[in-house]
Amino acid sequence: MNNYNQEDLNLDLQSESDLLFNSFNSWKHGMWRFLIRIKDNESIRDLLDQNLKLAQEELSIILDSSGMDFLYVRNDKKSFLLNLGRNLSFPELSNFFITKEYPYIEIREVNGSLYFVGNLRIYGRDRFEYDFFLVKKIDAEFSQQLVYQTQSDLLYYSNEQYYNGSIDSKIIEKKLPHINLLTATKQFESLDMDETLKSLVFRKGGQLIKDGDISDFVLITVLSQLPYIKRSLDINGTVLFVSLLSILIAAVLSFIISSSITTPIKRVIANMQRVREDDFPVSIEYNAKSEINQLYEGFNSMAYNLYNGKIAMEDYVKEIEFLKDYNETIIHSIRAGIAIIDSNLKVVKVNDFFQNFMALSNGDIQEVNFIDEQIILNVNLVLSKRKDSFTCVKRVGSSLILDVKIYPLVINKFDIDAEHQCILIIEDITSKHQFEEKIMQAEKLSSLSMLSAGVAHEINNPLSTIMINVQNELAKETDSSKFESLKWIEQETRRIAIIVNELLSFASSRSVENEYCDVNTVIDQTISLIQYSIAKEKDIRFHSKVNKIGLGSKISKDELKQILINLFSNSIRSIGKKGHITIHTGYKSENENIYIEIIDTGCGMEEQLLNKIFNPFFTTDHEGSGTGLGLSVVYGIVNKYNGTIEVSSKPGQGSTFLVILPADFKE
Question: What's this model's pTM, rounded to 2 decimal places?
Fold first, then answer.
């Protein structure tokens, strides 16, 4: 009965720990939902740029009744703080900063206090960054909400320091000054705390950031043993009463039964008590054969078997505990998400990577943002044994690529009635995919280099003939308008010659000489050239919104002009007869780069075409005016100067090309 009583205590303790752990994580999930609501609200983005007061009112409406304490919003020009609930002082603002581009939640210690911090970065229409910090203080009031209608209390621990929860942490610091969790959960059966026996469970609830250091954040569930001790005392009283009654009956019978029977029985009872107390080995000596001696012989055999069984069981239990902890450590150390899913599409168990990466709260696998109908369908097929496995690659957003695998989980192949489960494995292969794309692009550029060398040599001969004839015509021409046109022809012919030389340089991989280039000036010249060439055929307006401060780069002027002409030509073909092309320039001080952004109002492209547009000879122009080499040359020139080029586009919404080059400062 005492064992059953202890098992009830352990079950209640585990249940209380699970309840508090889930309640704690539900706050993370709630904070995550409000971050996503803010991120997806387009009006917030506009109001931040246009009317800060209306933006604050809109955010107050969104976060009304959220339970959060503060919302702090800032960028390089402006900031504001919203007090959303309790009248608390906001911690030092310098302790909050964004380290990731996507929304995420962290636990921070600031000046000895704990906080949930939801981090979000969005970009306004003017491309300024806005950093959002949604804050919830983890204090006694918060902890009392978690333990409401429970039998337990809650404390927190991280990096050899305890923090107050629903009770004062000093009562445990005296008994357990330091703990070391090798697994996700560590349980202490009995601990004398404040003159009361308590049972505790230490459970990892995430990671705590303190002064730039990261350590495990532990939830401590504290459950009093008093109700269970009282029940155990009641059981012991009953057992004592029964024992006393048995002794009284035995005393009466001892006067009736002869000593020849009672003495052997006493010997057996004494040795049975030794067995009960695990005082092995146990054996009763006997000589003559009789019914009593047969009893002794049977008892000795039983005691011997119990002793051997006890040793084997202890070794087996130790081995099982070791293997369990070892396997748990391996699973939680794997840098891929692993989840066990049951037939109801509920997550039965996950490793640390999956928990931190996916931020699950209610255990429903369908709440994960990249889980679509295809994956759910294949999960059901694997669970129903209609499919052995499933593998696919999922692109999440514009930057994250995941490798998703589904396998059946076989627990007992001989039990046909056992519940079917499956394993979902998620691996982030973004870096691997990007590396493979760079290798493929390098191979394509190698082919382009060989082609460029041959084409350049073939162009040089007719180009020389054109230049000689144009110069002869210039010497004879008296009409000013024709003279100007011939000068344009001569200028562009010279530029073609320079481009041919650059193609030869690109093909031979010659080193790049340092040359200061005023980016804004080259942009203005290129726009003038393009406008002159299309003025009679198309109504396409250029809008130049360049940075007023002079922007310089080490790229040559002709190569930059070639990049711009190819990108402008690509936009013009996409627009057709009428539209707009907008050019933005600027400087990024964090990595000392300048950027050129070209936005058109053309037809746009499907997502599956974006990875192919820089391939040599790939073109979407079916009328024969495009060769498919322009963007490949752009990619090669940008790559030569250690720059990058990015593109985003949607059908019917135009395209945006972003060229990033190393900045250069004129001495």
Answer: 0.38
